[in-house]
Amino acid sequence: MLRSPLLVSLSLAAASLAQQVGDYATEAHPRLPWQECTSGGCTTKSSGSVTLDANWRWVHVTGNYTNCYTGNAWNSTVCTSNSQCASRCALDGANYQETYGITTSGDALTLKFVTQGQNKNVGSRVYLMNSESKYQMFNLLNKEFTFDVDVSKLPCGLNGALYFVQMDEDGGLSKYPGNKAGAKYGTGYCDSQCPRDIKYINGEANVDGWTAHPSDVNAGAGRYGTCCGEMDIWEANSISTAYTPHPCKTENDGGQQRCTGQECNTPDRYGGLCDPDGCDFNPFRQGDRTYYGNGRTVDTTKKMTVVTQFITNNNSTTGTLVEIRRLYVQDGKVIPNSKTNFPGLLDPTDSITEKFCNDQKRAFGDHPSFQIQGGLSHMGRSLSKGHVLVLSIWADYAANMLWLDSTYPVDADPIKPGIARGTCPSNSGNPRTLEIDHPDAQVIFSNIKFGDIGSTYSGTPITLPQVPLPPGARGAV
After folding, report:
1. pLDDT of 242-298, one tens digit each?
2. Catalytic residue among 144, 169, 204, 235
3. Any idea of its EC number (predicted)?
């Protein structure tokens, strides 16, 4: 899906990314233990921690306080070329709580939308670490990934996201000589949107062709983007949710690759290395308007447990990915996933399979980029290489998050299947308005578990009632 994270707005600590390491602030990763489970029980990984993405960090000239990037522009005196900027600028440590609103308590991580201290920070993105210098890698095939989440303070237009991307374990430290910071300082990000707002890619700055964003005072776009396979486990607020695989035909079956021009899906959104749309399962978009939200079957006013299972054709970690299942646990009850509810148009399916994706693209009239990029089987090959866990809170300058929680495209008939994605007004989600009206918004992730199918959750199974066809929706074509 669309992703345009909001960056830090600081006077001395401008949001940016560099490859040298500064020494003005000590980098201390907040601890975040998680559990690995088998049928015999779960073991706590007490060494787990998180690191802040480098794009949010202060970058300055090595040895002094001169900014290399301020607002949405590079310091043209310091950064006259991509390689020179990397060699002259230093990436520094982060004050997680005071500057970025990032805190941990036990197994819980809280990400605040706006943090107003000496300066103002908006949004954040962090990665789960295995050690001080390496990301925790996950192979999700024939496994399930489970976590608790509280989205009660996420209104229309915000996204508390948990997802996996095929980043390098060390953040590119060993692969690119210009990168002296590595995973410890949150380098090496990539995703299926091939983002061009990343300021350093592959150990070099993204100065060449950099253009300031017309409405985001902290962001811009350079000549290069950075692509890789992406598995969105959770994109959600209190109104809507979706989970979505995004395959990429980059190097190493979806591994991180720098792109330029059409490789980055520009100008043709569907002509690049990655699938930007994915094959999404959003209960509201699938026709079940009573499943997720305030006081609904999955009640977003309360904490919930989210379980995602990755099924292979031979029930092994080396098999072909054939299905991605979802279920929830809330108040001790195991809640099966919602079923597609467009009788005569889509079968009543409750998981992501190749058939579901083919049927959905046809029924909704969506571009078959998911299939063109290799579908579930190629997504599985990417997952088998190992993915990094990403947790973030963000607002959307590109489309106001309407693709998640409102009518999208806004000029389309909301009665048409696939257009309505949530109950948010089509004029909601403006990031600047959200900063003013909802500065206290936050998401809390906790109780992360990873392990064998069926080993990470418990509860009493329930049966969902049959839901009516959405009012006015056409069930056949």
Report:
1. 999 999 999 999 999 999 999 999 999 999 999 999 999 999 999 999 999 999 999
2. 235
3. 3.2.1.-
Amino acid at 23: D
For the residues of 19-70, what is the DSSP string, one character each?
SEE-SSS---PPB--EEEEETTEEEEETT-EEEE-GGGEEEEETTS--BSEE
d(CA 307, CA 23): 41
d(CA 243, CA 308): 9
Tell me if the pTM is above 0.85: yes
Which residues of the chain, if any, have pLDDT below 50? Answer: 1-16, 476-477
Say what the pLDDT of residue 215 is. 82
- State how far Cα 382 lies from the chain centre: 16
Q: What is the DSSP letter of 226?
A: E
Are 418 and 473 spatial neighbours (Cβ–Cβ below 8 Å)? no
pLDDT of residue 411: 94
pLDDT at residue number 3: 47
**Which of 252, 234, 246, 242 minimizes the C-alpha distance to 384?**
252
Tokens at residue 254, please?
Answer: 């979806």
CA distance 127 to 162: 10
Q: Which residues contact 354 (CB under 8 A, 6 or more apart)?
A: 322, 375, 376, 377
Amino acid (one-letter) located at 18: A
Among residues 27, 230, 263, 435, the one annotated as catalytic is 230
Domains parsed from the chain with CATH numbers: 32-56+96-461 (2.70.100.10)
Residue 408: DSSP 8-state: S
Q: Is the peptide bond before 283 cis (omega within 30 degrees of 0)?
A: no
Backbone angles phi, psi at 212, to 5 degrees: -65, 145
Side-chain-side CA neighbours of 145 within 13 Å: the count stands at 21
Is 230 an active-site residue? yes
Q: What is the pLDDT of residue 473?
A: 65
Q: How far apart are CA 142 and CA 102, in angstroms?
A: 32
Angle, helix 375-384 to helix 354-364, in steps of 10 degrees: 130
Can you tell me which residue has the tokens 């257009």?
Answer: 419
